[in-house]
Structures are given as structure tokens and as C-alpha cells.
Amino acid sequence: MRKISFLTSLAFVAILPLSKIQAQETIKKNGYTLSFESNYAALDPKLKKRLIETFFVVYPKLAKEYNPETLKSVKFLVDTAYKGVAATSDGKVTYSSIWMDKHPEDIDVVTHEVMHIVQDYGRSVGPGWLTEGIADYARFKFGVDNAGAKWILPALKPEHSYKNSYRITARFFAWIEKNVKSGAIKTVDASLRDHTYQPEIWVKLTGKDLDGLWADYVKNPEF
């Protein structure tokens, strides 16, 4: 990121709306820094507090488990203009103020999104469903209050596929971890990050390819 001189920074701050300045906060804890911004004046202070607390609970755990070299400084933005749920790019997580207003209990959206920072796959050699499945598996494993959000891994249905992504894929991964090979998802995650991932990795780890694993999962999906 290009550095800005001190005087230029002061000039920049001077032209910002007061509400924007008041919405900025930087919190440092245990070697990690979170910069919190919001252009949503009605953001519940209790929700803001929970978003910050959740970051400092889950991010160090995700870093330790998957990628100790992950970014030490992260940005959060609660944005009134963003119409999705949340999105992550270049160490910054943008949350929809609309979503957070309607779903204040969904605090582990933080866990899913900061896992994307930890993943740091860059130009990934793996499919998108795999990236999102691992992020939701991380939410399942490390989430602080999935129950409060009524967020669960869905029961297997005939129309499901491991390529469905998100929670459906995450449940399949949880089954693999419990019933086939503990640590498999961590290994796959690492291969995506260092760009060595190939579909054959599943055979090396478990003795079966994804289709074979899915067939076994369908026969007995409990874990």
C-alpha cells in the first residue's frame, strides 16, 4: 500500500465527514490489529462489540491451525451500500448493514470471512466450491455461537453434491475428518495455499477420490 505523508494524512482526515471519523477505531490485541469502520450511524454498539470480540477469539485460532503467516492487520467495514451478506478482499471484510440489522445473531459470519483471509489462496488452483466449503468447515469447527444463529450443517439430501459448496460441502468435510482421515482438510487447505493442489490429493490422503468418498458418505452420512 502506498504510504501517505503525515501532512497529507491530516488534510485527508480534515475533509472527511465527522460521522466517518467517529466510526473509525483501531484495536490491538495479542499481536493482531483490527481496524473497524462503519458508515452506518445506527449500528448497534453491542453488535459492534461482538464483531470485534469474535475476531479476536477466532482469528488467532484459525491462524494457528491453518496459516501462522496470515496477515496480522485486518480491516472490518460495515457498509450501508453493500447488498450482499459479507465479502472479503485484500485483508478487508465488508459486512452488509442490512444483513447485520436483520441477523444480529449471525456473529460467526466473522469466522467464515476471516477464514478467507487465512486461506490466502491467491490465484487458486482449486475450485470455488472447495474454498467456500473449507471456510464453512472452519466456521463449524471454530465458530463462537453457531447455535445462537441457528446455523447448522444440513442433513444430507438426495440432491446434494460435494460441489454444492458452503455448508453442504462443510458437512462432507466434517464427515471425512471424523470417519476417514483426521487432518485431511488442513492438508488440502495447505496445498491450495502453496498452489500444489491436485484432485489426486484425496486419494493420497484417504485412499479414495472425491466421488468414492462421497459414495461412502451417502451410504452412512452420520459423524
Quote the average pLDDT.
91
Runs with pLDDT <50, length 5+?
Answer: 1-19
User: End-to-end span in angstroms?
Assistant: 45 Å
Helix % is 40-55%
* Envelope shape: globular
Elements, N to C (H/E): HHEEHEEEHHHHHHH
The secondary-structure class comes to alpha/beta
Number of E strands: 5
- Give the strand order, joined by hyphens, for the main sheet: 1-2-3-5-4
Largest sheet: 5 strands, mixed
- The radius of gyration over CA amounts to 19 Å
Number of helices: 10
Strand content: 5-15%
Task: Give your account of this protein's structure.
By secondary structure, the protein is an alpha/beta fold. The chain is built from 10 helices and 5 strands, in the order ααββαβββααααααα. It has helices spanning 6-14, 18-22, 45-66, 97-102, 109-119, 128-142, 166-179, 184-193, 201-206, 210-219; strands spanning 25-29, 32-38, 73-79, 86-89, 92-96. Strands 1-2-3-5-4 form a 5-stranded mixed β-sheet. A hairpin with a 2-residue loop joins strand 1 (25-29) and strand 2 (32-38). Helix 3 (45-66) packs parallel to helix 5 and helix 5 crosses helix 6 (128-142).
